[in-house]
Amino acid sequence: MTSTKEYKDLEKKYYMQVVNRMAPVLVSGKGTVVTDNDGNDYLDFTAGWAVLNLGHSHDSVTEAIKDQAGKILQMSNLYYTTPQLSLAKTIVDNSDVDRVFFCNSGAEANEGAAKLARKWGKMQLNGAFEIITTLNSFHGRTQAMMAATGQPHYQDNWRPLMPGFVNVEYNNLQQIKDAYNDNTCAVLIEPVQGEGGVNVPDSDYLRSVQEFCKSKNILFMLDEVQTGMGRLGTLFGYQRFQGVEPDVMTLAKALGSGAPLGAFCSKEFCSVLEPGDHGSTFGGNALTTSAGAAAAEFMVKNNIPNMALESGKYMFEKLSELMKKFNFITEVRGMGLLIGLEMNKDLSGEIVGKALEKGLLINAVRPNMIRFMPPLNVSKDEIDQAVKVIDEILEESK
Ligand SMILES: *Cc1c(COP(=O)(O)O)cnc(C)c1O
């Protein structure tokens, strides 16, 4: 058996050093628990980065992948294949969009949405091409999505940025109105900002942006890559906000339940892409969409988003109780099972390290904020365990 040290040496020698990895070498997982190469268990409150909304190795997903792997993995999009159609139907039946295109990641989904928006601009708005996005957003790491992502850290080393994106303050309608001009073709925002620090907008923000977009005939596009597939307590995050219906919506992360799968979806009126306009060799791949179709069907049948709503409330209350005990916690915020705990000191790195030692995986989304995004079917007992670990650690850093 290869030892943990040997694996780490291999990584140092052969892998691009683009991330500071956490200590364990993880080899298996079931539900909320992952196991490392030395047999230690951890409670996973990162869920593969908000990907494993049904937990690790969920039976429905594992069975679908096994079954599909024995039938057909891949054909080009020139031919009909079946799992993608089943998943597209589940998305459309349970949302306000009409058409779906599958790709392989969140960045690629947003790229597709941006292409759709530019074509909309060509056809409807005299060639308008500019897309308004927000500061502290995250839309991916491709050339265009670095320009869309309003954070210096993702932009500064790669200038010049691709033109055609303007970043304005989140939760600020006036700044969108001010940035709007004859070149604007769309607005792209997250229903709740994830990587930007779990920022929940005012309840009427999304709807008022949508109304503004409608009044100017520009597209209202929601990046649901992190918030989609139940995370906020409804199948799609926007469904938690009254009167909100995106023209375009992008998905990835939890869509494939661990298989690399993204999608951009649009209403019929703005489905302007035609044969030859867009494509993807692996997009809609039979294997990844079989995982996605099984996961989505299971989620809808068993109302998993509602579990996120209930457990989210429970965890939110538990974490809020810690505020009474530790005065350096400044805010607990979030929606469903996307929750951040903010402090007035930069303790995240230290907390994440200590949590790991106590068998809990969490994320330091900001230097002063930790983020929780467990599987949506996490148990109350597991939430209690996680909060207890945080409580102990904060007690030590008091
Ligand atoms: C993670 C994320 C992306 C990028 O997804 P990748 O699959 O890493 O390309 C885009 N938008 C949001 C909101 C995300 O959270």
Explain what the structure shows.
37% of the residues lie in helices and 18% in strands. With 398 residues, it is an alpha/beta fold. The chain has a domain at 73-301: Aspartate Aminotransferase, domain 2 (3-Layer(aba) Sandwich). Strands 4-10-9-8-7-5-6 form a seven-stranded mixed beta sheet, sandwiched between helices. A four-stranded mixed beta sheet has the order 1-2-3-13. A four-stranded antiparallel beta sheet has the order 11-12-15-14, covered by helices on one side. Strand 14 and strand 15 (369-372) form a beta hairpin. The N and C termini lie far apart (42 Å). The chain binds pyridoxal-5'-phosphate (PLP). Pyridoxal-5'-phosphate (PLP) is lined by residues 105-107, 110, 138-140, 190, 194-195, 223, 225-226, 252-253.
End-to-end Cα distance, whole Å, is 42 Å
What small molecules does this complex bind? pyridoxal-5'-phosphate
* CATH C-level of the domain at 73-301: Alpha Beta
The main pleated sheet reads as: 7 strands, mixed
Count of strand segments: 15
Report the structural category.
alpha/beta
For the biggest β-sheet, the strand order reads 4-10-9-8-7-5-6
What is the level-2 CATH architecture name of the domain at 73-301? 3-Layer(aba) Sandwich
Count of alpha/pi helices: 12
The shape is globular
Fraction of residues in β-strands: 15-25%
Q: Estimate the mean pLDDT confidence.
A: 97
CATH topology (fold) name of the domain at 73-301: Aspartate Aminotransferase, domain 2
The sequence of SSEs as H and E is: HEEEHHHEHEHEHEHEEEHHEEHEEEH
Which percent range fits the helix content? Answer: 25-40%
Uncertain regions spanning at least 5 consecutive residues: none
Round the Cα radius of gyration to an integer and report it.
Answer: 21 Å
CATH homology superfamily name of the domain at 73-301: Type I PLP-dependent aspartate aminotransferase-like (Major domain)
